[in-house]
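Researcher: Structure for this, please.
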Amino acid sequence: MPILFSIIESPLHPDFSVLYRELGLQQTRLTSMRKAMAELKKQKPDYVVAEFFYGYGNNYAGVNISNLDVFLHSLQRYAPEAKVIVLVDKAEYQYVNKLEALFPIQAILQQPVSALDIEKVLANRLI
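Model: Predicted structure, token format:
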């Protein structure tokens, strides 16, 4: 059964647990990047669904673009074949291309994301 990491860092992250089960995915719910990094060392995901938060100013040590940089760098080492789906708020959509220039991202979905939106990306395993 393919493994999907659902990295939930805000209340805006939709709960697609039922859909993931219907699509035959084993969901691992993680509530912080720290927990996601630890879990990545234990199991290799086939898919990752995570929210993008742009690092304004010196957030994230001033070196990283967003909350996802360090995780995506590690993902390339531990699970390079994993498909990444990024959920982004409309106000931060303009910045996600900076992350996409550094890391392979299979889909960028603007919030609010519906079950149909995510199903279109996952259902056919085309990503």
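Researcher: Any notable elements?
Model: The chain has a mean pLDDT of 91. The chain has five helices and five strands.
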